[in-house]
Amino acid sequence: MTSKKQLLFAYGLAIHLLLVGIICYAAFPARAPDQPLRKMYQTNAGKVLFDHFTHTDASGYGASCFDCHHHPSDDDSALIACGECHQAPAEDGSKPERCLDCHDESDIEETQISSRADAFHNQCIGCHEEFEKGPQSSSDDCSLCHVL
């Protein structure tokens, strides 16, 4: 049998090791990659896993960042997420402020802003047809992209 002193020592050691592990994990987090690797989108039709490497690698589709992430300048720091603009208008009907960074108020009033899902579909299907690779819009098989 173990003595009470040995048991307390074992518990104390376990607690100290746990605390050291938590502190090390918090102090030295994993560095985020320079380019995103994969992104999972949750949709009503099922999850869509987007793999950046497949789309940007020369042996894959060979697309550049600016083929999907459109912005007026060809500056990597100007790339913004689709959801920044393609979102539902506010309850008062106002447009997202991010659009006004580049567009005049009159331009936005005349243009219908697509929902994020519609913007993704249009962008993805257009690129797949242009590069003639991957799922095509002629296929009605949604499971090629949407995993249920």
Structure characterization notes:
It is a single chain. The protein is mainly alpha-helical. The chain folds into 2 domains: 1-30; 38-147, Cytochrome C3 (Alpha-Beta Complex), CATH 3.90.10. The chain contains 5 helices and 3 strands; from the N terminus they run αββααααβ. A 3-stranded antiparallel β-sheet has the order 1-2-3. Strand 1 and strand 2 (47-51) form a beta hairpin. The chain starts with a helix and ends with a strand. The relative contact order is 0.11. The mean pLDDT is 75.
Outline of this structure?
The protein has five helices and three strands; from the N terminus they run H-E-E-H-H-H-H-E. With 148 residues, it is mostly helical.
Number of strands: 3
Fraction of residues in H or I helices: 25-40%
Roughly what is the average pLDDT, rounded to an integer?
75
Backbone structural class: mainly alpha
Instruction: Give the percentage of residues in beta strands.
Output: 5-15%
CATH topology group of the largest domain: Cytochrome C3
Strand order of the largest sheet: 1-2-3
- C-alpha end-to-end distance: 55 Å
CATH C-level class of the largest domain: Alpha Beta
Radius of gyration: 24 Å
Q: DSSP helix count?
A: 5
N-to-C SSE series? HEEHHHHE
